[in-house]
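Researcher: We plan to redesign the surface later, but first we want a full-length starting point. Tokens attached.
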């Protein structure tokens, strides 16, 4: 976990900080090849410059977002936005099912849409993997 992500997590209160720390550890452990940084004010992990997973504090929860998650065909992930992203939300550490999270992270490494070049392609996504 980078110092910036640790600072983001430490800025959260109580249970939210516990959830963020758990997510960061699991993501780092399961995507060791990923670059990790704060992007648009939230922790995001990238593979070859392409965003694959991140989390953010919402009003009443921590949202875990997979940029290509709609293509994972996984229960527990819900469509988010107008592209291929999917999310799940947590209010307590006990809600994080590490088996599901590990499976989702494996799919994040193997199922990717090219968000890195979405502006260059004028909003058109192409499948990478």
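Model: Full-length starting sequence:
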């Amino acid at each position: 976990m980078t110092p910036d992500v640790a600072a983001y997590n430490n800025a959260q209160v109580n249970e939210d900080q516990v959830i963020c720390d758990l997510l960061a550890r699991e993501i780092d452990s399961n995507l060791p090849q990923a670059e990790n940084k704060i992007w648009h004010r939230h922790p995001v992990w990238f593979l070859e410059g392409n965003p694959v997973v991140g989390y953010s504090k919402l009003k009443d929860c921590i949202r875990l977002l997979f940029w290509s998650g709609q293509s994972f065909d996984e229960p527990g992930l819900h469509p988010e936005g107008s592209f291929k992203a999917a999310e799940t939300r947590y209010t307590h550490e006990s809600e994080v099912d590490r088996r599901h999270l590990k499976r989702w992270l494996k799919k994040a490494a193997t199922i990717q849409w090219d968000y890195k070049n979405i502006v260059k392609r004028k909003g058109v996504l192409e499948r990478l993997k």
